[in-house]
Amino acid sequence: MARSLNKVMLIGNLGAAPEMKTTPSGTKVARFSIATNRQWKNQSGQEQEKTEWHRCTAWAKLADVVEQYVKKGDRLYIEGRIEYSETESDGQKKYWTDINVQEMVMLGGSGGAEGGGSGRGGWSGPSRPKSSGPSDAELAQPDDDLPF
Predict the structure, then answer these.
(1) Poorest-confidence range of 2-6, 34-38, 140-144?
(2) Strand (E) or helix (H) holding 138
(3) Which of 21, 31, 80, 120 has the most other CB atoms within 10 Å of its CB?
(4) Mean predicted confidence (pLDDT) in 93-117
(5) pLDDT score recorded for residue 109
(6) Three-state DSSP state, 109
(7) How far are the Cα atoms of 6, 44, 79, 103 from residue 3, in angstroms, in the given order?
């Protein structure tokens, strides 16, 4: 059987303070938006720029890290998977595309250099906080993989 892959990697800036919630079972959820920019020259040579906004959701221990350390304007590396959903309100269907965050690296504040792992935090290697959603197995893991 063929394998498949659903993976997203983004480097961008947080647009607003993360929104924190707790599920009825007690799992923390952090929701936030990351802005990425693309620049190019059109056929007449004029500079063009487009900003894309990506809705992101982090769960459990990774949501704790987001709550404690991430603020508006921070530059982040996000790795996760795309998930699609729909809601209905007043008879209108709305469709959503979310990034379910599995790994995150804080690259520094909004004034930081492109890329790089220095600045206000920066996890690398196996000690990076991970989350794949509110699975019972993950929630039962000890906290010894946190970077502090």
Answers:
(1) 140-144
(2) helix 136-139
(3) 80
(4) 76
(5) 57
(6) coil
(7) 10, 44, 19, 21
Q: 99-108, pLDDT tens digit by residue?
A: 999 999 999 7
Instruction: Report the Cα 136 to chain-centroid distance in Å.
Output: 21
Q: How far apart are CA 64 and CA 27, in angstroms?
A: 10
Fold of 8-36+50-137: OB fold (Dihydrolipoamide Acetyltransferase, E2P) (2.40.50)
C-alpha Rg value of the chain to the nearest Å? 17
Task: Record the tokens describing residue 74, joined without a space.
Answer: 């921070």
Domain coordinates of the chain in residue numbers?
8-36+50-137
Tokens of 120: 């206000």
This prediction's pTM = 0.69
What count of residues does the chain have?
148
Torsions phi, psi of 72, nearest 5? Answer: -50, 135
